[in-house]
Amino acid sequence: MSYTGADLIADALAQLGVEHVFGIVSIHNMPIMDAINRLGRTKIIDVRHEQAGTHAADGYARASGKLGVMIASTGPGTSNTVTGLYEAQYGSSRVLVITGQAETAFYGKGLSYVHEAENQVPMLASVCRRVESPRHISQLGGALQAVISDMYTGRAAPGALEIPIDLQYAEAEAVSIELPDNADFMPAGRDIDRAVEMLKGASRRVIVAGGGVVAAGASDELMALAQKLDCPVLTTVDGRGVIAEDHELCVGNYYNSAGIYNAIQGADLTLAVGTKFAVGVDGQFQAQTPPGELVQIDIDGNMIGRTHTAALGIMADAKAALTAINASLDDTQANDGQFNQVVWEARDGVRKAMRDRLGPDWPQVMDVIRQRLPRDGVFVRDQTISAYNCGNQQFPIYQPRTSINPTSGAIGPGFPMSVGAAIATNRKTVVIHGDGGFMFHATELATAAQYQVPLIVCVFNDSGYGVLRWLQDTRFGRINETDLGKVAFAQMAQSMGVPAQRVKSVAEFESALDTAMAAEGPYLIDVDMEHFAPMEISVMPKKKVEVDVRA
């Protein structure tokens, strides 16, 4: 049998060490699916929807640091991937979408060829940094190499490759896929010298670590520097796990907390590594200028000084920059003890205050999960009350790549991302989800059952969009379009082969979680929030809206 374009793709994925791809088979990608299975180096995970599959590839990439891949069909299949690619772009995640396309003889002719999608490339380009579409079999290897090189150069990003169906069947020559060495992202010596000088000249320093530290695999280097400086480490939500949250130097994901922000105002230098200083809803957090002089390290030069003016910007890979700083900062430069004490007291106070706001039941639920989930177990959150109030800050994270959430703030990606993360790591993974967001991709329960994914799905069921209810009541004094009715999620899960139960108390939740932890495959716990003590909700500033009653 001849070596085809489809074989080239299968071989290239194997060269890249891709062990799993997510996909939905179609007449426009069948050759690729067949080639992957014939080669036998990569396993295909059949998802139920392309958006979910792309989110799963994203979770796979974030949990493992490897390339996440979704194989889709042209037209409607590819348009379904766009939301997943949007999230991957927002989260700087390496997700590759490979899709088919009409035969080259029909492409661009407007003949209503089945699944015709002549603007597929610009559509994908709106959510990818690089998209390629070869027109001849001789261009296929180079097109794939171009997309992969872009995805692995500098800040991670998603990419896409569309392959006309005739090129998938065409005879091809094997190619070797190589990754860029990123030599251009080594820090300049003068910048390191200046950073070390500034660090030595300061005595009240704080570190803010973001997802760029996780992406660079620079946790050890960050830890070494923090210990040399005896310096508090704050993280962003995507930077969680770069320092264990039970370590004495860790403040956690509290930079945007008023109590912590006020406590660090005495700092004379902020070292920010791999964070964009993302701005929240209504411009939230933009006014929270990092205290003291700002030294900002980021692999993407466009991020440096974008939100806050930096006294020193270093465009470099986080691991390379921190390694160089540690090598030059040979002596321990201990922070001012009184400053540190103020930060530690604020940290402990904020953690206690936030825990108290959860009421009597939810801290116990959180503790039960943490006690049973191994330190290297993956904890995924969707955008839900439980994530805002406890999952994103209160639930302790101990290792990098064990904390995953939708960076874009979308609801719905959490469950499919957790499927991908569990497949990537083959470790127990827990996802906490609201019922509204869970309904976006509930059919992926069938995927979890088919592959016996080691996943525990906790659906916090309040019969609607709880966060939006709170916002509507706060801003308008009434709620609308946020009640969804109570779904019997346990029965839904069981119908798709996933064992499940509904719980109505902390004791029942604890028992259900023990059962779920003992299960080899997936398990769903439907948490009926109606029977739990309420928690205080506070996810963003209150904003009153004046309504013209004459309208």
Outline the structure in words.
With 551 residues, the protein is of the alpha/beta class. It folds into 3 domains: 5-169, Rossmann fold; 184-347, 3-Layer(aba) Sandwich (Rossmann fold); 358-531, Rossmann fold, CATH 3.40.50. The chain has helices at 5-15, 30-39, 50-64, 76-90, 120-125, 137-151, 165-169, 189-201, 211-216, 219-229, 258-263, 318-328, 337-357, 362-372, 385-391, 414-425, 435-438, 445-450, 466-476, 489-495, 506-518; strands at residues 20-23, 43-46, 68-72, 95-101, 130-132, 159-164, 205-209, 233-235, 250-252, 269-273, 293-298, 312-315, 378-381, 403-404, 429-434, 455-461, 500-503, 523-528. It has a 6-stranded parallel sheet, sandwiched between helices. Helix 10 runs parallel beside helix 12 (318-328).
